[in-house]
Write a structure and sequence with these properties.
Length: about 240
């Protein structure tokens, strides 16, 4: 049985643990990031959406959807269209009765490539974290682009996180999954704090690494690592990759 470690925020861990276990994997989990909302930015978004001049609203994560819908009923707002990056974000919107446009692939760069024409000259608001992929700023060349960062991710620390890194360092894990570039930074920051940086890096070079998408892959490569990347940049895509490798 493959032993797989991952570090999703606690709010999303249970569904991933269940999915992996149902597919015969032994799961080890400790969140390396915590979600922190920005109430003032949520209020700013609400005021902005009162302006009917907003043509498109773009969501880059399911977290941004959940936070917005907790405070703002988008079904009561009048706007031309909503765009979601990826099937998970789109699925979260559908849970609230909203059918978004979705690019064929799952990164900010794909929105630029696929929707540049329909967004040309429009008023577009991007709702996301304060650490989002800067590729989406290229839309500003063709539309009036406004970004509202309604949350951030901060490092999570504690015994669970320390224990999991020590298990990875000692070779007790077969696959390590990273689902964001910030997670990679948090992981190696903790490794340094624990005095395990070189041991951890050596261990990761001997086992299977998976990055959920290109930004996370690039971050891992900066640490001299070469992760595999699923063709579908979701945890289901990760699961398929693990089971076929």
């Amino acid at each position: 049985m493959k032993r797989v470690a991952f570090f999703r925020p606690a709010e999303y861990a249970d569904e991933t643990i269940r999915m992996f276990q149902e597919n015969g994997l032994h799961v080890l989990h400790a969140p390396l990031l915590m979600i922190k909302e920005f109430p003032e930015k949520i209020g700013e978004l609400e005021r902005r959406l009162e302006d009917t001049g907003v043509d498109f609203l773009i969501f880059t994560s399911r977290t941004s959807v959940r936070i917005v819908m907790k405070h703002i009923d988008l079904n009561r707002r009048k706007m031309h269209e909503i765009i979601a990056i990826g099937p998970v974000t789109a699925g979260e919107l559908r849970n609230f009765g909203i059918t978004p446009l979705v690019p064929g692939k799952y990164t900010s760069a794909d929105i630029v490539e696929e929707f540049e024409e329909i967004l040309e000259g429009k008023n577009v608001v991007v709702v996301r974290s304060d650490k989002g992929d800067p590729a989406i700023y290229r839309l500003g060349n063709v539309c009036k682009l406004e970004e509202i960062a309604i949350y951030t991710l901060v490092p999570a620390r504690g015994k669970a996180q320390e224990d999991l890194l020590r298990r990875i360092s000692s070779g007790e894990v077969d696959v390590v999954v990273f689902s964001s570039s910030m997670m990679v930074d948090s992981f190696f920051d903790l490794a340094v704090e624990l005095g395990l940086y070189e041991d951890i890096k050596g261990a990761l070079q001997k086992i299977s690494l998976v990055a959920i998408g290109p930004p996370t892959e690039r971050k891992l490569k900066k640490f001299g690592l070469n992760p595999a990347v699923p063709s579908e940049h979701t945890f289901r895509g990760i699961l398929k990759l693990i089971n076929t490798s």
